[in-house]
Amino acid sequence: MHRETFKLNFEVRIGCLYRGAMSLPALQREPARKPIPLTELRGVGPERASQLARLGLHAVADLFLHRPRRYEDRRRFREIAALALDEPATVRGQIVALGIKRYARGAKSVFEFILDDGTGRLHCRWWNLPYMEQYFKQGDDVLVYGKVHSLRPRTIDHPETEVIETGSENSIHLNRIVPVYPLTEGVTQRWLRSLVWHALAEYAAHIPEPWPGQKPADVPSQQEAVRMLHFPAESDDAAKARARLALDEFVALQLAIQSRRKKLYAKAKGWPCTGDNRWMKPFLAKLGFALTEAQTKVLRELRKDMAGGQPMRRLLQGDVGSGKTVVAGCCALMALESGFAVALMAPTEILAEQHYQNFRRWFEPLGIPVELCTGSRKTASLRSSTLNVPSSKEATPAPKLVIGTHALIEESVSLGQLGLVIIDEQHKFGVAQRERLLRKGHYPHLLVMTATPIPRTLGLTLYGDLDISVIDELPAGRGSIKTFVRGPEKLPKVWAFVRSKLAEGHQAYVVYPRVEDSGSGGLKAVTREWSALQKQLDPCKVGLLHGRLPAEEKERVMAAFRDGGLAVLLATPLIEVGMDVPNATVMLIENAEQFGLAQLHQLRGRIGRGAKESFCILIAGPKSKESEKRLQILAETTDGFKIAEADLQLRGPGDFLGQQQSGLPPLRFGDLANDGPLIERARVLAAAMMEAAETYPDQGA
């Protein structure tokens, strides 16, 4: 009975991370009973169960999915005499001496034992952890893992250790490749490894395939994968197991994505929003420049999507300065010409204000109402306006464009008959916020924009339910941007260069990471540095901009900089979006090592928007090898897509996105930064499963 319960429970846990995938008739596998608690296993009482719960382990299925953090090949050990500096290694020996030394009047201590393997001796030390003495005694046979930081004598500080005990279970812990798990207080490697071993012996034979009939021939079964994950026979078995279990996670994710989109198209009909060009033609004629081929191509894709039939769900990617806003304007005109309202949501008041100014300049000469809705400012009444139409005897409600922040989501805000929702910098919003705005209309079309290029692996997961368009061409006439990385000692020369550019009539941004001085870390703050910067750049006028200023003050400062009344804008990173000043040709960023690649690239995108050559100077203090590599990438390329891929590799998806609002599940085995081929494969497998579910609706039910 327990084994059958486990079989069903395990299948659901690993195969259906997303409940959306469970809606497919052919894949429905609800557990028959509650999960088998770990207390059913021998040796797991209430106290042990409580300890395991701290690791997120509550049931047998959880235990099988508890991923080792590394492996030790205990078929062979490194000799102590052969240990090298800063190289991780496992050695085995006998404790020949141990004890605690106290100093600073007993306030500090070091516990140390000396290990001997016949080839040499190794000193293992723990600072200010005197209780470690209770775990060892002279004569113990001990395994030690760590990096030697001194050869005279050979010493490892705070190594990982495991005391070898005599007994029949030694075959689990020695002469094989063994797992090393994440632990918690009270749980040892040896005990947890034994628990997994015995649980596998009892339950592993009942681990099912989550996708019957769909397993690729070149991957191990899920039962084999779980065994190989914990006790690999060969060094590459663990990698094969990880890949198989990651594939299961990605298949579940793709099933959820594809089934969600299928449901949308099954019950929703899109509004016909292709327009009639009565506003589009004069708008394009007055722009003063021709659209690029990439912009024109994307517009054709958008017009086709908005023809009706099904609601458009599209992601528009384009590097900074590629002209996404103009494309969004054209898309908005299609909906407005068709008699529908349009809502554009931006993540910050600065960006919303920038869009408001641009669209007013573009649309109000055409007679199209443009309104603003932010937390601190609302224009008009946010109710439908009226517009006199020559062909009608009476005034009719005019479709409007409403631009705002998340304030658009408020129930009190009326958007009229919503035909199109545009979301700028989508990664700054949560999925729930996007859905709340969409529900203001009846399945309106959706255009999501981002100037942070999305690596393909994230595009297939984070935005897997959207079609993707890319503007891969910058408008003609843009000046080049040169990027330099400099240390703080070069600041006098850097300021001399900035003053020379200001003397030529150019403008500059200076960015510091903080608003106020926190008194730690050596990070510069705009409020503390403002007076010094005014003296440094005198007689040029310097403006101050940060998120704590009142909205009216922020607008005044931005307007003064745009109009040339200010030569320099001292700001926090909030200017990474929303500032478009062609005469600004210098960007100086202090404490650049504190920023991610994507954010630095966004900040750099504030310059180079005119025809003049521009300069981005990154001032970085003492840097780690990782931060040096990151900044060097930025200095070598201005290609946002290459930078995004590098940022994902260096920092992972959580940091890359800036905040955990994607709606993605926590992946135990999948790696969004490196598993591109697995994600592609999962997408194909999920599509085949969807088709099989439709063709054979009773299969496996």
Q: If helices are DSSP runs of H or I spanning 4 or more residues, what is the number of helices?
A: 20
Major sheet summary line: 7 strands, mixed
What is the alpha-carbon Rg in Å?
Answer: 31 Å
Mean pLDDT score, rounded? 84
Structural class: alpha/beta
CATH T-level fold name of the largest domain:
Rossmann fold
Measured distance between first and last alpha carbons: 20 Å
Overview of the molecule:
This protein has 701 residues and is an alpha/beta fold. The chain has 20 helices and 24 strands. The chain has a seven-stranded mixed β-sheet, with no helix packed on it. Strands 12-15-11-16-17-10-18 form a seven-stranded parallel β-sheet, sandwiched between helices. It is globular.
Task: Outline the secondary-structure elements.
Layout: H1 2-15, H2 46-53, H3 60-64, E1 70-73, E2 88-103, E3 108-116, E4 121-127, E5 141-147, E6 150-151, E7 154-157, E8 160-163, H4 170-173, E9 177-180, H5 189-203, H6 222-230, H7 237-267, H8 280-286, H9 293-305, E10 313-318, H10 324-337, E11 341-345, H11 349-363, E12 370-373, E13 385-387, E14 396-398, E15 401-404, E16 418-424, H12 431-438, E17 445-450, H13 456-459, E18 467-471, E19 481-486, H14 491-503, E20 507-511, H15 526-536, E21 542-545, H16 551-562, E22 568-571, E23 584-590, H17 597-604, E24 614-619, H18 625-636, H19 640-657, H20 676-695
Parallel strand pairs: 4-7, 10-17, 10-18, 11-15, 11-16, 12-15, 16-17, 19-24, 20-22, 20-23, 21-22, 23-24
Antiparallel strand pairs: 1-9, 2-3, 2-5, 3-4, 5-8, 6-7, 13-14
